[in-house]
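User: Hi! Is it possible to get a structure for several chains at once, not just one? Here's what I have:
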Amino acid sequence: MTAAMQLTSVLKTLADPTRRAVFERIAREGEVAATGLVHGSKVSQPAVSQHLRALRDAGLVIERREGRHIHYRVAPKGLGPLVDWLGHYQTFWAERFENLERLLKETES
Amino acid sequence: MTAAMQLTSVLKTLADPTRRAVFERIAREGEVAATGLVHGSKVSQPAVSQHLRALRDAGLVIERREGRHIHYRVAPKGLGPLVDWLGHYQTFWAERFENLERLLKETES
DNA sequence: CATTTATATAAGCAATGGCTTATATATTGA
DNA sequence: TCAATATATAAGCCATTGCTTATATAAATG
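Assistant: Yes, the chains can be modeled jointly so their relative placement is included. Here is the combined structure:
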């Protein structure tokens, strides 16, 4: 799998709002079981299951089985292809980058 | 248009490899006419035209008419929604971010 | 073992997407 | 005004996508 293909996979996976919402919820909650994600979701259990599979296939989340439950968390390197690609376009978002840089430094202290 | 919708638009637009290639070429060449993009493209003129429209609608490129030619360049703020969104997930790509930070500093000097 | 709970898979459907060919609309210049 | 060039739009086609309902699998528990 080439870098371009991985990037395409990440972009396509995050492009769907419902699926991105699932990802964001996993990120926010740290670790969630699939059931938890179904509750409070607009779509059905199979739909959530399909989205989780897509997120996993794209390398964006990791699953950990615990009995009947499967817990999901964000994969640390999942956003890597996206970040790397954006790195090539620094000149086009340098200003915002400065903001992030400042933010990071504030967070450190 | 909400921030989430803009992000969806940017992600969907960049998710197609052919269209992303067009964007990358515009970024690389600085300013290109549509004809220039058609030459050396795998797809037809209408296809390129459709991709350019999508890129423009997503706010990723800007067009400048000059006689019969329309020149495209990357819109500085186009990647903004993506960068902003990624900002919320710093913890998941902090390491790569450090690399970028280092790279930026090297570039400055 | 039987039932309940958690998740995945199958099948089908309507909508979307990206491409093509054909044609329309500028814009320029002879 | 006519022909050539540059780009856009229209229409149609096929593949993909996201959803649904129905069903299958897996694991825990009585």
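Residues 12, 16, 18-19, 43-44, 46-47, 50-51, 67-69 of chain B lie near DNA strand C (CB under 10 Å from a C1'). The radius of gyration of chain B is 16 Å.

User: Great, thank you!
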